Amino acid sequence: MTKSFLGVDLGATSIKIVELKEEAGRPRLLTYGYTEQSVGYPEKEFTEIPERAIDLIKKICVKSKTVSKQAVAALPSASVFSSVINIPAAPGKDLAEAVRWEAKKIIPLPLEEMILDWKVLTPEAAVGAAVSAVPQKTTRVLLTAAAKKLVKKYLDIFKGAGLNLVSLETETFALVRALVGVDKSTVIVVDMGAASTAISIIENGVPFLNRSLNVGGINITKEISTSLGIDFNQAEQMKYDAGMSPSAGGGVSKIVERALTMLLNEIKYCTNLYQNQEGGTGKKIEKIILTGGGALLPNFVEYLSGALNMRVYAGNPWARIIYPEELRPILDQVGPKFSVAIGLAMRELE
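Request: output the structure for the sequence above.
Response:
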């Protein structure tokens, strides 16, 4: 029998779980479930209250009738150091030493407190060009690092929930797997969650630039609540009813636009940073893929496209997943929130 895997996304205010198994070379959806906190800013994230995280994971698994005990999870983009570095070309062991030496210079914490992961980028991924027959003088490496203390928190939570954590990666890689796939063009993935938004520039399937800012759906709700003098729950409902639609009453679209100013400026900054990097002259970003709860805001895709003069799409993480046709309406509705969990569950099926 083909093994199935759980993708578990521990967000700031929610937990999403997806169970997939391979069928005829494609992932098939077995079940899914989630829980969301219906309050404003959470007092603490789930990793800071492990007992609650364990309890909720168990309840979701029971309610959604998951079968597998094999889980894949992701570390928040804001908690992981990630960078593409150039180091002198060297064989095996020497290369590993060179990576550690470079990591010491750019990672702000002692390496003894970090878990390092790195992989050599192919010439195509490194420079977006054809493979050269000329020997490379430098090697381009994708370096990621996470604090050992944070990794231990995840291990303890999953052990407490009775699950075997088989892989732990970054949210960005899960999003690339779910939304970008084999597309080699350069894209920006904007993952707008409740408390924060992660912006990643993906070139040849590799994350080249990752930034995170503390602007999310909650900020929009609070802005509507304050501006119109209504309570948080009313503002939340109004946000999803009106969104960026100019025809909405009460000037809600202008309020939302004001709340998103920082996000818009950050996307522009990332675009300029990428295009002005060494060797980046003339590099073109093909499109923006929007995901997370923010992708559900009415007219948000159209607004971003006009404001940035770029093609913007709402990502569809179910595109390569087999599922019952009768579930399509509900899956389309919740899809943006499940992008990370779907990408995680897909990891072990590749």
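The first strand starts at residue 4 and ends at 10.
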